[in-house]
Write a structure and sequence with these properties.
This protein is of the alpha/beta class. The protein has 3 domains: 14-173 and 243-310, Vaccinia Virus protein VP39 (Rossmann fold); 174-236; 322-406. Helix content is 40%, strand content 15%. The chain has helices at residues 14-23, 45-53, 75-83, 96-109, 149-159, 177-188, 195-207, 213-222, 229-236, 246-256, 277-284, 288-298, 322-327, 356-367, 382-394, 403-406; strands at residues 65-69, 88-93, 117-122, 134-140, 160-171, 259-263, 304-310, 329-332, 343-345, 351-353, 398-401. The strands form 3 sheets. Strands 3-2-1-4-5-7-6 form a 7-stranded mixed sheet, sandwiched between helices. Strands 8-11 form a two-stranded antiparallel sheet. Helix 5 (149-159) crosses helix 10 (246-256) and helix 6 crosses helix 8 (213-222). The longest helix is centred in the N-terminal third of the chain and has 14 residues, at 96-109.
């Protein structure tokens, strides 16, 4: 295959980063036969639209076009194929070696057989030509490795159809303080981004005093994540990296012309996980961005941002009207595990208990044709049905569609 980077590189760091990932194809997840283990709902388009708008998408899966921008060794592409059957997926990366692993991963998992079309191409996202084409873009851990992330996000924005969505993952300054210190120390020692650098980087953690803050932080938080050499190298030896705080994150989004919709990990940004009583009441009276800023200030472990962005305004449907609930249709979230059972695992890998009426509703939906209205299902009484729908929707187990969208 001819090099995708003949002539002038798409970004000043392209050749450098491409060579790094050719040496350390990332992520270092092992290959396996069959579907990937477990599912992250953020790779499922129906879930994403539901999180951003409160309703299921009207778009049929066979018309859905998805971009995996910076697919690496294909872990994300594999999930996208299995969670969005019938769709058209383009997966791109600047590393040929990472793509070789990705192609083998998708061959063994049979992910390509789940979709209408899968393309896996060596390409910088800055060289994308599919203007106004994709409905959903997955961009996890990519833009912060460009010398000019703003240019990258503008290209992704241009690649979206009107109303399209992006899942964006970027490094956060606060929770990477210790990582940045190690990166700085290795650079001061002249340690490179190669196999010898990998050896010396691991040796550094072995030789630091047992109670050294940087060593204990690594051992307690990152040692398992960096067991694979490519993962260790990606964290501590990467030649090009930018990280953000809330202010610079929102400036980046604004510069692209995209709209911030919500965090894809909203529980992290809820002050109630850090405060209670009088202080929490005070914080709840603040504008929401100040609440987020307070969470950022109080939690030094936030190491990344996960956000949904839209091209154009995205409104959120209100389910406050009981009539709209009873007239709605719904599906059971495909990223829910353990059904049928009273003890299940929710979409965020959180264990939860469900009641008898709730389980009955779930089983009725699973046994019915798609598009059946809740009012056509059988429960003891209408109040029980409404309560079950409300609870299951709040837990992320049910995803709903108003009647007027289905008709």
């Amino acid at each position: 295959m001819a090099s995708a980077f003949q002539g002038i590189p798409a970004d000043a760091a392209t050749r450098l980063v491409s060579a790094f990932y050719d040496r350390f194809p990332y992520p270092g997840d092992p290959l396996q036969d069959g579907p990937p283990p477990g599912y992250n709902w953020r790779w499922c388009y129906r879930n994403v639209v539901n999180a951003c708008t409160g309703v299921l998408p009207a778009l049929k899966s066979e018309n859905l076009k998805i971009l995996d921008a910076g697919c690496g060794t294909g872990v994300s592409t594999d999930y996208l194929c299995h969670l969005n059957p019938g769709s058209d997926i383009l997966a791109i990366d600047i590393s040929n070696q990472a793509l070789e692993v990705a192609r083998e991963r998708l061959r063994r998992s049979k992910g390509a057989s789940r979709v209408k079309r899968l393309r896996q191409e060596q390409l910088s996202l800055l060289d994308l030509k599919e203007d106004n084409y994709f409905h959903y873009i997955n961009s996890v851990g990519v833009l912060h490795h460009l010398r000019n992330p703003e240019a990258g996000l503008k290209v992704l924005a241009n690649s979206l159809v009107e109303g399209g969505l992006i899942h964006l993952f970027l490094y956060a300054d606060g929770g990477r303080w210790e990582i940045h210190r190690i990166q700085q120390a290795l650079k001061l020692m002249g340690v490179g981004s190669d196999d010898e650098g990998l050896r010396l980087g691991r040796q550094l953690f072995q030789e630091l005093p047992l109670k050294n803050r940087l060593r204990t932080h690594h051992e307690q938080r990152w040692s398992i994540d960096t067991t694979a050499d490519p993962n260790f190298a990606d964290m501590y030896l990467h030649p090009q990296e930018t990280s953000y705080n809330l202010s610079t994150l929102f400036n980046l989004v604004e510069s692209s012309g995209l709209e911030f919709v919500c965090f894809s990990n909203p529980s992290v940004w809820d002050p109630s996980r850090l405060l209670s009583g009088e202080l929490l009441k005070m914080v709840r009276n603040l504008p929401v961005k100040k609440q987020w800023a307070l969470v950022e200030a109080l939690d030094p472990d936030i190491s990344h941002f996960e956000v949904f962005l839209s091209k154009g305004d995205t409104s959120h449907y209100s389910w406050d009207d009981k009539r709209s609930l009873i007239d709605a249709t719904g599906i059971v979230n495909p990223c829910t595990w353990g059904l049928p059972s009273y003890s299940i695992m929710g979409p965020d890998l959180n264990y939860m208990m469900i009641e008898e009426d709730e389980l009955t509703l779930i089983q009725n939906l699973q046994n019915s044709n798609s598009g059946v209205r809740f009012q056509e299902l059988t429960l003891k009484e209408i109040s029980s049905l409404l309560e079950a729908v409300n609870v299951l929707q709040s837990k992320g187990i049910l995803m709903l569609s108003p009647t007027h969208i289905n008709n």
